Here is the input.
Amino acid sequence: MEVSVFETQTDSHEDEVEKEHGLVVKFLIKLSLLANGNKQKKEKEPKRIIRRRYFLGVNISCNLNFGKCVESKAKVAAKKLGILNKVRRYFTPGQRLALYQAQVRTSMEYCSHLLGGSAKYQFEALDSVDRSARRIIGDKLLTQAKLHSLQHLRNVACLSVFFRIYFGECAQELHNLVPPSPFYHRTARHHERWHPYVVDIPSTRTKRFLSTFLIRAAKMLNALPATVFPATYNLSTFKARVNRHF
Here is the structure.
């Protein structure tokens, strides 16, 4: 029986299609097995817990304890102040003050609104550096007039950042975390006790939650007098008035 060339080509083409189909099926089977195998491995592997994260110069721990960060800042500031102490005889008290504010104080003030909720004993190292700097400057009247305490600066920074969040000068998700308090608009009696910018504070059961930035700043904002707030959003005016208030 004679077979035409066309039939031979058709049979060979069908064989090639079947081979390619078989290869595709085998590839998909291997891919699914590989995916299932990796999934099982991932399920068996324990999840890694990141204990600490260094972000934008701040050492953030999983329990939001900034003690290590405050300690590292105090060490760096103490080293810088030691260098200033060695060359103090070459500068006047005013120049020492300028060097201290530019080179040492800035490192202790960085992200102070986040660190403000730490325990008081953790700030003792920073306060010790500040007291040593005042002795090195050597002019008590000058330091009293030009230098505020570190606690004062932390309060001003905390309220300034929270003021921006309240007026929406941030991400919308962050702004939604500080809703205005509904109690201010209930009766006229509250108008005497509270200012129009009172925010609602959720109930706190733990000291750690109470010391977080938003809760701590909200309590400070509610305690401010109405004269501190400008008529419209003005961060520089608010910051200057808060600075004078404290």
Remarks:
- The first strand starts at residue 52 and ends at 55.
- The chain is about 60% helix and 5% strand.
- The chain has two domains: 52-147, 162-241.
- The longest helix spans residues 5-44.
